[in-house]
């Protein structure tokens, strides 16, 4: 480098320690400034360029139009290139005129000029790729300014010292260069407008990070607006931003699902490759068995494939933060040497303190970026797992449904998915903890020598013990999840049958069953908590024991080894870094253990058999037919005998087909087979066109009546009106408080059975499908309603005329109007043909008619008698349908029939009140031309209240309630134990400080044994107090879990039936799964972490104030500032 800088008047050495270090006025040599200092930004840009270009190539978002800002940036880049080349041409000019400059004056302008040209081109390329704010260029311009600050000062000082400017041209060009790079840095901080062809953001509350600049992302300025809004007003759901596109469940679930399906395909290919090996010779099996052994699809591999790139980015942040954490101990060593050297220049101390501050700031910035990245990954991971499990639950076979209970599936989506989210923040410790331990040991070796091997040996000895603890905790975890599944399954059954349970007063019996399972669950939790407390004691003591043994060996291995301030406090600083990974290892192992159990549970569930989506062919079919079955044999499960066998059915397009038969003959199974919900053993099934299905028991959503009918489709007022009118729902809308905006309770609790069936039918009519599968929709309604529905919807003159309709029914009065009839008996087609032809056969169909004819005669008798009444049938039709599902009146009894008719008239009059100020008003029927008024708000039709969530800070009463559940004495004991642990920690550090200041005799310290013994006692006492506090918290946490679950269970069981009618069962079930999990396994460790952080902060403040009382002046305004920020 000295050769590059030349010699003589304009030459200089590359490095001069007397000029740069050992002086009160430090400076760098001109050679250093003109070479390495000028090259640093150029080296950065050229190194970062390949990766950045690759990123831009795959993340283009359209180009940005050429704005004034972009033009100005480009002009500055061109000017910087011109300034650099002016320096280069000036050097050539001097060479031509006999003033040969040093080679560095040729190399540096050339390198800087080419780099500036590259930066200018990169500005335009980023514009073409839609980059609004370039972090790469901001860092480049920042490095240019920082590296130019030193020459900026040096040239001024040199000119003042010499009284003149030695090289006016280069002096001038440098300051022009400095002004230009400073302007370029300022302009780079401004954000460009969005890309020209980017989609217009119509979101009323878009996510601000997506459009934030580099500096805004780096310092989280984009979040400031939300923080200020939250300070002024309690945050509500409407205040939250919309999610980024890549964070939404549609994207995340689909990506994870594709990765999982890829794993399943690879496993299927592996099994196919292994199949020939099963019939190979024994020698072949020996040679190929290991290679061709079938394997299961790996859900872990699917997770890594989906979220691996994001985890890699978080790994980079964590790596930088870990490396930065080891700089401060080295700077501390330099600072202690500076303090102990009275002849050292004062600027050394300022420089070291500034570097320590800068390092801490960088570490904080990187760490917050890491946390932001890793917690977003955790949320996406949980979202993806829940979505995949939910989709799997929709397609599992019936045999799997028998084995996988609702409680197990709920736990998979709530507890097991949450365990993965809890694991993600600790995941990088798998490589970070060994790296930090190795680096800490390396620097400790540099400081204390081979004595550090004693500490390494201790850590190695602790690994088997920790492994045994992990195995035992995993066994507890498996057993606990089984008990949790059983408890949630039982709670689900209780909620589903709560009416019957309350009717027969079975609450005490079921309470005992739930509490019995809960008791066994708490016993396992108590064992696991004690085991975790023991593990915590080991790992809290291990850093201290490593420190103690290392210092003990260092002091006693050689009498000449003196424990001075530098060795002691640098070693303690390194041991504190070592303490972090060692303290986090128990939590990592615990989370890994829980996640491994959850992984196996999820993978087992996702690997279960699914319904074959190809069992129903939907693309090809014989011309003129909508449904065909050839030699079809179907079963509900592989281990059950076939329910339907040898079916040969052909349904023409647009036909109305009735399916009849005795109870249990397979009519509903036939519909399920056409839907693909049964397992096909033989034959082929062809269904051409879209399908609408009306089940025998109506499925009603917990939403408005309109939303139930639309079922996610856009509102077409004309078609919507037609569907309501055809399904006889218009009069119901007049009776409902909010019209079609009335909220329907869970499972249709505020609708009668007939109303539910008509809403289900209206949903199918509105879907405008090609094929309608109607599974006995007329059985839940009265004869009048059935006739109306058949005439206006299903029959030859109904709105579905021309569509293919398969109607399962027992009503023989409608059979003559069908195109042909399928008669089932014992799972087979016994007869099939038009109504007249089947009557002449005198076979199964004739038997069916004889069985159901009396019922039909009674219904016709009711019809005729109702017609003799002097009222309008259509006027009371819907009220009768509603009443028939809520009374025990028997239509066959003439006396009760009259009572029923009178009651319906009264109900009809009452329902009209309000329109005529309490006077009975005539009921108006909506004609076909009337339009349904669609209201935008659910004004008075709301049934299920939205779940309330507290806003603002958590009230003290909540903490007080939890403290009472834990036990006030237990909480007080935990706080006192943590206070004692902090006091022991302070005592150990003070004792170590006093030890380093001991007087020395013949270069040896006195009282080494006493100092070491007291230090060891304080450390062991600290570990014991932590273990006792962890055990006390375990006892208190289990007690709180028992008390709160018991109170919740008793409260819900004794709630009135109206509560269950208006509260979704999923919300109640979530309280017993997710929330109880939080109380059992999350709150107690969180409280311990809070107490640990609080007492650590208090002990640190006490030590600083005791040693430097002036710090009190600083801590008071800082405390006020932190309180304001926290609030």
UniProtKB/TrEMBL annotation:
Residues 312-594, 972-1127 form the ABC transmembrane type-1 domain. Keywords: ATP-binding, Cell membrane, Membrane, Nucleotide-binding, Repeat, Translocase, Transmembrane, Transmembrane helix, Transport. Gene3D superfamilies: ABC transporter type 1, transmembrane domain, P-loop containing nucleotide triphosphate hydrolases. GO terms for cellular component: plasma membrane. Its EC number is 7.6.2.3. It is a multi-pass membrane protein. Residues 629-851 form the ABC transporter domain. PROSITE patterns: ABC_TM1F, ABC_TRANSPORTER_1, ABC_TRANSPORTER_2. It catalyses: leukotriene C4(in) + ATP + H2O = leukotriene C4(out) + ADP + phosphate + H(+). The keyword Electron transport does not apply. The keyword Transit peptide does not apply. Residues 909-931 are annotated as: Disordered. GO terms for molecular function: ABC-type glutathione S-conjugate transporter activity; ATP binding; ATP hydrolysis activity. The chain crosses the membrane at residues 36-55, 75-92, 104-123, 135-154, 174-190, 299-320, 347-367, 423-445, 451-471, 528-556, 965-992, 1012-1035, 1076-1095, 1101-1125. Monomer; does not require oligomerization for channel activity. May form oligomers in the membrane. Interacts with SLC26A3, SLC26A6 and NHERF1. Interacts with SHANK2. Interacts with MYO6. Interacts (via C-terminus) with GOPC (via PDZ domain); this promotes CFTR internalization and thereby decreases channel activity. Interacts with SLC4A7 through NHERF1. Found in a complex with MYO5B and RAB11A. Interacts with ANO1. Interacts with SLC26A8. Interacts with AHCYL1; the interaction increases CFTR activity. Interacts with CSE1L. Belongs to the ABC transporter superfamily. ABCC family. Conjugate transporter (TC 3.A.1.208) subfamily. This is ABC-type glutathione-S-conjugate transporter. The gene is ABCC3.
């Amino acid at each position: 480098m000295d050769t590059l800088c030349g010699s003589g008047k304009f030459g200089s050495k590359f490095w001069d320690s007397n000029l740069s270090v050992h002086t009160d006025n430090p400076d760098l040599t001109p050679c250093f400034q003109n070479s390495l200092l000028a090259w640093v930004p150029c080296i950065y840009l050229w190194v970062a360029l390949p990766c950045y270009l690759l990123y831009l190539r795959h993340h283009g978002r359209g180009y940005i139009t050429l704005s004034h800002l972009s033009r100005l940036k480009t002009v500055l880049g061109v000017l910087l290139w011109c300034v650099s080349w002016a320096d280069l041409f000036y050097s050539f000019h001097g060479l031509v005129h006999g003033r040969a400059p040093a080679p560095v004056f040729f190399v540096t302008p050339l390198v800087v000029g080419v780099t500036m040209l590259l930066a200018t081109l990169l500005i335009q390329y980023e514009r073409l790729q839609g980059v609004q704010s370039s972090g790469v260029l901001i860092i480049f311009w920042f490095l240019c300014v920082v590296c130019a600050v030193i020459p900026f000062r040096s040239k001024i000082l040199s000119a003042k010292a010499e009284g003149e400017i030695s090289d006016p041209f280069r002096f001038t060009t440098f300051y022009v260069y400095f002004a230009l790079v400073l302007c370029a840095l300022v302009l780079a901080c401004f954000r460009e407008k969005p890309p020209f062809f980017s989609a217009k953001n119509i979101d009323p509350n878009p996510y601000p990070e997506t459009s934030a600049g580099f500096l805004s992302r780096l310092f989280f300025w984009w979040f400031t607006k939300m923080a200020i809004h939250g300070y002024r007003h309690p945050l509500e759901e409407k205040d939250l931003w919309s999610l980024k596109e890549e964070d939404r469940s549609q994207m995340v679930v689909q990506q994870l699902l594709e990765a999982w399906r890829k794993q399943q395909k690879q496993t299927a290919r592996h099994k196919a490759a292994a199949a020939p090996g099963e019939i190979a010779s024994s020698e072949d099996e020996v040679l190929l068995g290991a290679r061709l052994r079938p394997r299961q699809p790996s859900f872990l591999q699917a997770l890594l494939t989906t979220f691996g790139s994001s985890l890699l980015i978080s790994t980079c942040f964590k790596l930088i933060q870990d490396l930065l954490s080891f700089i401060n101990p080295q700077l501390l060593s330099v600072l202690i040497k500076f303090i102990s050297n009275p002849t050292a220049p004062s600027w050394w101390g300022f420089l070291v303190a500034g570097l320590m501050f800068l390092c801490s700031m960088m570490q904080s910035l990187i760490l917050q970026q890491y946390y932001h990245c890793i917690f977003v990954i955790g949320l996406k991971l949980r979202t993806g797992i829940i979505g995949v499990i939910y989709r799997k639950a929709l397609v599992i076979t019936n045999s799997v449904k028998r084995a996988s209970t609702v409680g197990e599936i709920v736990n998979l989506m709530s507890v097991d998915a949450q365990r993965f989210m809890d694991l993600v923040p600790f995941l990088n410790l798998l490589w970070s903890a060994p790296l930090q331990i190795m680096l800490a040991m390396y620097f400790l070796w540099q400081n204390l020598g081979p004595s550090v091997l004693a500490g390494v040996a201790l850590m190695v000895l602790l690994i088997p013990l920790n492994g045994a603890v992990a195995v035992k905790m995993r066994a507890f975890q498996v057993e606990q999840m089984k008990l949790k599944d059983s408890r949630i399954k039982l709670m689900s059954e209780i909620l589903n049958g709560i009416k019957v349970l309350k009717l027969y007063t079975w609450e005490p019996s079921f309470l005992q069953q739930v509490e019995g399972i809960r008791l066994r669950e708490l016993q396992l939790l108590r064992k696991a908590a004690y085991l975790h407390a023991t593990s915590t004691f080991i790992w809290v003591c291990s850093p201290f024991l490593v420190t103690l043994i290392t210092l003990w060996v260092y002091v006693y291995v050689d009498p000449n080894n003196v424990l001075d301030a530098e060795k002691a406090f640098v070693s303690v600083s390194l041991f504190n870094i070592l303490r972090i990974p060692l303290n986090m290892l128990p939590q990592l192992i615990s989370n890994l253990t829980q996640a491994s159990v959850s992984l196996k549970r999820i993978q087992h569930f996702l690997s279960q058999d699914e319904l074959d989506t190809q069992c129903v062919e939907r693309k090809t079919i014989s011309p003129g037919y909508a449904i065909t079955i050839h030699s079809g044999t179907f079963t509900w499960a592989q281990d059950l005998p076939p329910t339907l066998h040898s079916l040969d059915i052909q349904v023409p397009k647009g036909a109305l087909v009735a399916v009849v038969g005795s109870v249990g003959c397979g009519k509903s199974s036939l519909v399920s087979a056409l839907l693909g919900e049964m397992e096909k053993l033989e034959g082929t099934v062809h269904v051409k066109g879209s399908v609408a299905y009306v089940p025998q028991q109506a499925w009603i959503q917990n939403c408005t009546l309109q939303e139930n009918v639309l079922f996610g489709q856009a509102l077409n007022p004309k078609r919507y009106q037609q569907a309501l009118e055809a399904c006889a729902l218009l009069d119901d809308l007049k009776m409902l408080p909010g019209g079609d905006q009335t909220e329907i309770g869970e499972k249709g609790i505020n609708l009668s059975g007939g109303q539910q069936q008509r809403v289900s039918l209206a949903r199918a009519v509105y879907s405008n499908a090609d094929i309608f599968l109607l599974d006995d929709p007329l059985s839940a309604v009265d004869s009048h309603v059935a006739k109306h529905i058949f005439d206006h919807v299903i029959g030859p003159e109904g709105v579905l005329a021309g569509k293919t309709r398969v109607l399962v029914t027992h009503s023989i009065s409608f059979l003559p109007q069908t195109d042909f009839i399928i008669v089932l008996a014992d799972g087979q087609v016994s007869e099939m043909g038009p109504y007249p032809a089947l009557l002449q056969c005198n076979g199964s169909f004739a038997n069916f008619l004889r069985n159901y004819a009396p019922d039909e005669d009674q219904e016709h008798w009711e019809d005729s008698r109702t017609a003799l009444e002097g009222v309008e049938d259509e006027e009371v039709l819907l009220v009768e349908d509603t009443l028939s599902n809520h009374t025990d009146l028997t239509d066959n009894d003439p006396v009760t029939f009259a009572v029923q008719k009178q009651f319906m008239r009264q109900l009809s009059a009452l329902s009209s009140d309000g329109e005529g100020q309490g006077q009975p008003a005539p009921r108006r029927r909506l004609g076909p031309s009337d339009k349904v008024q669609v209201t935008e708000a659910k004004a008075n039709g709301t049934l299920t209240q939205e779940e309330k969530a507290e806003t603002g800070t958590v009230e003290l009463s909540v903490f007080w309630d939890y403290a009472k559940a834990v036990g006030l004495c237990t909480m007080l004991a935990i706080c006192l134990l943590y206070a004692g642990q902090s006091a022991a920690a302070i005592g150990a550090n003070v004792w170590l400080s006093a030890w380093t200041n001991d007087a020395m005799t013949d270069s040896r310290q006195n009282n080494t044994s006493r100092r070491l013994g007291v230090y060891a006692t304080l450390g062991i006492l600290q570990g014991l107090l932590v273990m006792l506090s962890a055990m006390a918290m375990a006892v208190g946490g289990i007690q709180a879990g028992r008390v709160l679950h018991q109170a919740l269970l008793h409260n819900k069981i004794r709630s009135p039936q109206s509560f269950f009618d208006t509260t979704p069962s999923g919300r109640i079930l979530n309280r017993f799964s997710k929330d109880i999990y939080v109380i059992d396994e999350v709150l107690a460790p969180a409280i311990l972490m809070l107490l640990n952080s609080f007492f650590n902060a208090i002990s640190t403040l006490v030590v600083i104030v005791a040693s430097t009382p002036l710090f009190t002046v600083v801590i008071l305004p800082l405390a006020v500032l932190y309180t304001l920020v926290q609030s």
